[in-house]
């Protein structure tokens, strides 16, 4: 019974990862962030049996440290507003285009002077 609850908890953790990545990060970074999150979550999952076999207080200390860090880092995440993110992306592209035009105009002037 305990194993079934543990498996359900692990599955729910991975599902939270799937859902939260799309809500917390811009679309252009979603696949990269999802890959990084998935990689680290699998690394932690691989290391869990090793930690479970260590002497008695160590597994509980590791668990408490992981729980505390999850709470601290989780509170730092801010759900992004898709509309504001798209507006910022458009502004950034417009600035880059303006900068490229500025550079190309300067190069044309330099060539005209020569």
A few lines on this structure:
With 114 residues, the protein is mostly helical.
How does this model look, in words?
The protein has helices at 2-24, 27-52, 57-76, 82-113. With 114 residues, the chain is mainly alpha-helical. Helix 1 runs antiparallel to helix 2. The chain is elongated and about 80 Å long. It starts with a helix and ends with a helix.
Count of helical regions = 4
Class of secondary structure makeup: mainly alpha
Radius of gyration: 24 Å
Q: Main beta sheet: strand number and arrangement? A: none
Mean pLDDT, all residues: 78
What's the shape? elongated
Total beta-strand segments: 0
Number of domains: 2
Sequence of secondary-structure elements: HHHH
Helix content: over 70%
Low-confidence regions: none
Q: How large is the share of residues in beta strands?
A: under 5%
Distance between the termini: 83 Å
